[in-house]
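User: Could you go from structure to sequence for me? I need the amino acid at each position, not a summary. Structure tokens:
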């Protein structure tokens, strides 16, 4: 396998990781909005606060991971000679 083919395969893997992570981020955001709505209606406040805080931390981690994937994709595209 040539080096160019290896880079293309790595790029495919990174794009799949990006798709999965974006899907998780969207679903997590929807869940956080739902918990926030329950907090607004004052239903089981203590449990919902804990769930909201944990969800927010996971959302922040997910966003950092998305940024890392984006950086990896940009590096691989530069290695292929696509952009400068």
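Assistant: Here is the amino acid at each position, in order:
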């Amino acid at each position: 396998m040539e080096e160019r083919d290896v880079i293309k395969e790595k790029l495919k893997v990174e794009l799949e990781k990006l798709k999965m992570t974006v899907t998780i981020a969207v679903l997590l955001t929807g869940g956080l909005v739902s918990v926030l709505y329950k907090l607004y209606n004052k239903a089981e406040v203590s449990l919902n606060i804990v769930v909201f805080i944990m969800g927010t931390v996971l959302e922040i981690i997910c966003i950092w991971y998305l940024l890392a994937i984006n950086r990896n994709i940009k590096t691989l595209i530069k290695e292929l000679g696509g952009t400068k």
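One structural detail worth keeping in mind: The chain has a mean pLDDT of 89.
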